[in-house]
Amino acid sequence: MFRALLLACALTVSAVCASAQDLQSVLQEDPALYNKPSRGTTADAVEALLASGAYDVATFLERWQGKEVWQHDDGRFVYVTDSDPYTLIDIDTGEEIGTADKGELTQIKPNAGVRGVIGSALVRFQLSDPDPARRIAALDAINRDGSAEHLEPLAASLEGETDPDIAARKERLLSLLTARFGDTTEARVEAINSLAEGVSLDSRAALNQILTTRSSVAAEVPEGTNVARIRKVDDTFTVDAAYAELASAGLAPTTVSDADVKSALTAHIVDGEVAGVPVAQMNDPAARIRAYQSLVDAGQAAPFVPPADREAAVKAHIFFDAYVEPDAAVTDAAYAAMRDVDLKVSAMQTADIALDAVSLASIYFLAAIGLAITFGVMGVINMAHGEFIMMGAYTGYVVQQVIPDYTVSIIVALPLAFCVTFAAGVAMERLVIRHLYKRPLETLLATFGISIALQQIAKNIFGTQARPLTSPGWLDGALVFNDVVSISYIRIAIFVLALIFLALILFVLKRTRLGLEVRAVTQNPGMAASMGINPDRINMLTFGLGSGIAGIAGVAIGLYAKVTSEMGADYIVQSFMTVVVGGVGNVWGTLAGASLIGFLQKGIEWFNPSNTLAAQTYMILFIIIFIQFRPKGIVALKGRAAGN
Amino acid sequence: MNKTLLASNRSVLIFLLVLAIFTVAVTLMAQATGFGLISTSFVKTLGKTLCLCIIAIAMDVVWGYCGILSLGHFAFFGIGGYAVGMWLMYARTEEIVAASLANQPLPATAQEVSDAIGTQIFGVVGSSELPALWMFAHSLPLQLLAVLIVPGLLALVFGWLAFRSRVTGVYLSILTQAMTLALSLYLFQNDSGLRGNNGLSGLQNIPGVSAGQDWVSVWFFWASALALALAYILFAFVTSGKMGSVIRAIRDDESRVRFLGYHVETYKLFVFTLTAMVAGVAGALYYPQAGIINPAEIAPIASIYLAVWVAIGGRGRLYGAVIGATFVSLLSSWFTGGGAPAINLGFYKIVWTDWWLVLLGFSFVAVTLFFPQGIGGLFDYVAVKRNANYGPDDGSWRAEEGKPE
Description:
- Chain A is of the alpha+beta class and 644 residues long.
- Chain A has helices at 2-18, 23-29, 32-35, 39-52, 57-65, 112-126, 132-144, 148-159, 164-181, 185-195, 201-210, 239-248, 258-267, 285-297, 307-315, 328-378, 385-402, 406-431, 440-462, 489-511, 513-523, 525-530, 535-560, 567-582, 587-607, 612-629, and strands at residues 69-72, 77-81, 86-90, 96-100, 105-107, 213-218, 227-230, 273-274, 277-278, 318-323, 478-480, 486-488.
- Residues 4-19 and 640-644 of chain A have low confidence and may be disordered.
- Chain B has one domain.
- The longest helix of chain B is centred in the first third of the chain and has 30 residues, at 73-102.
- The two termini of chain B are 13 Å apart.
- Classes of the chains: A alpha+beta (644), B mainly alpha (405).
């Protein structure tokens, strides 16, 4: 800080010492440069100001750029405050020097081009500004739109920089600018090599700019051209496209398109014939060409280059992409650096996809674990599971209507959703499923009946439009690792929620009396009953537990997706897949299934990111094939418990 | 066992008689052929219902008789519809394109015609080329063959994979549901070659036919009735006799049948594939009457509704499936079409378009719980019982296999 003060003092002192001329007199030397600035003259104007060494040029430039400089009718340039009558302020001393009416003053309004030139001149002041915020703003401006003239002031400002963060940014920016605009090849190559170490968007943008190419064509590659690649004529770069390029470069005569041929023929129909060829034969392309050739011979149509000639012309030329940058050493270095960066970026993208996959897997785990438990313990499939998810999400929505504070409402909604769906699950087990244990396929259908009824009831109550479930403010935003890898806090929260439930379920199943009984009923209900366990009670509690977790999953899903009456249906098939792939009646199996499906879906999406529908299709096909090899899932029950 | 098919299945005769009377009655009431008592669109609705009855019978055979709860038969139905729809759309577009190109001064080249057809059909999904999938679309016989072969082949491959790895019960249901979902998601893509979620449309216009829709609707009604009759006879044949006994035995206890030396997988595969092909035919008749087909029709929910119809009608008896499909689909269109009067409870007005699904859902639960025999079970009360009633679940507990009714 002390150094900064010292520096500021030094600058001030030197400025004051050098102020042989005051600002006003510099301006008056050629007022037209300042009150009617044009893009071409502004650089000279700024140069003149700087050369004068006048005090406080920076403030003047800033105000000039901000349209805050006015000219009085007597020719003086002034700043003003207030309005009508305006208070005039001297541009050198900053003191009030009287008032004037609006009629006596003219505001100077530089156009956008001029303001840009002033801006870049200002940069050198701003880069050394005592206020760090302004230095950062200057860096941001250069970052947005850097140019060769920034290079020198940036390098100069680096020396006096005291803030280590800003110094680091300046250095980065300096190497970005050096890479693009440096004086010598060596300096540029060195800067480019230093860019290869990062993966940030701006270094990639700088490299891309160096590697800009222009397509061209010639009989031979001209001397001194920095060729990026030769373009081969093949399926993607067709002969027609190549010939069109030749023609537009003036290296071959232009030919006519099929549409031109057609319109020329149409224009020359005489008595049902075109140049002696009957119109009725014109459904044959060869006849059309024959007729057109006759027209050309008669001088009635533009010449037509036959395909063979076109191909020969294309063969006689070389099509290539040339770098705009003439220095091959620089482009080679940039190309190598780009490859390094690309490699790193793909590695980062893989990490990013993996994070996405983990969060997707957490959602599937939450959605499916309830299903897995009920299916494992009772052997019944609950088609209404998706509707329990929906019920949980709507519970969250209703709670948010009552409790406006988002944090509190989420904390209330989670247990409440559990209670609501737990009750619904127990009721459903008591009323319906209990009577169908011997007929598992009919359970599937009866629960489906409940599912469509619940869905329609939700639609009748809440309407068809999506309802928002707003997450608390502290879950907004994302954890950003760098320009490539980031993950939103909501997804992290869902991941944590999934972990908590994994631990909770494992604890209940492995460490409590209830869990022991549940496992016993899972393995052999008859034997468990003879040991004094009441399977009815266990079934009821298990079903309630499974449904309750679905309710929690509903709140979690509702936080990042919209709550609709059909949201359950979107997850039910994936949940079934998770259970089937993972293996029935095992928490770890469900976890494995959810991970497999989550990673698989994201992996397939990576190959074809534009098409999530295709990703789901391929995933389901994969699962169907997977079931061939492990019909009982990844973690299969063994021994007698496996049943038949 | 020496009795003829009809003698051992009296219900077939009764059914055919009822169907014939119904067909004649509708023909007499239709606008084109009779006194015009019912509208053309209602004739179409009835024709579509007959097609739904065909697929319901197929579902009944695969589920009620063979015990495979397939949630994928509507996919086969849809494939049949797409197959015939491709020809309808291609041929119709060809007519339109030919008519519009005929006005041009120059006759069009073959390339121009095919480009114009491609643009006309695929303009909505931003493409103008006919995909390879459409290479047979110009030929009606080939596309009709596809109606049978594509669903059959898909069912054969899928069934072979599933049955040989002993995927049974609820697992199999979910797997068939996944297959259906995969197919419908695939068709939803714009680059699937079948116009994405726009589906195929304008199928009610039969190329080369100048008769009005009143005639076309009656023709399709007759064709559907004929197909239903044939399908009924076919499945009555399949489910009677020795093969029928084995099929029902598989439903009741698969392992025991396997231990007795029967090759269970082959029987299941046969039933699965045959019903898939019949479903394809039903779809091919249904969609020209509906006029439009899109991937939403294939979504898993449709196949589940199919199971609902069969369960409400009564599983394990062919006429039960027909009753269920007719009853539920007509009732559904009555309720959702606003035909049912709203009930005013004073504090709340029950509008059936909103509450019909709730009613259906709960009545479905009630049927499953209290009337596993479905509506068809009512006939047991009036019919003279010659044999004990063997439902889908009790059969395996009997000492000897009884004859079907």
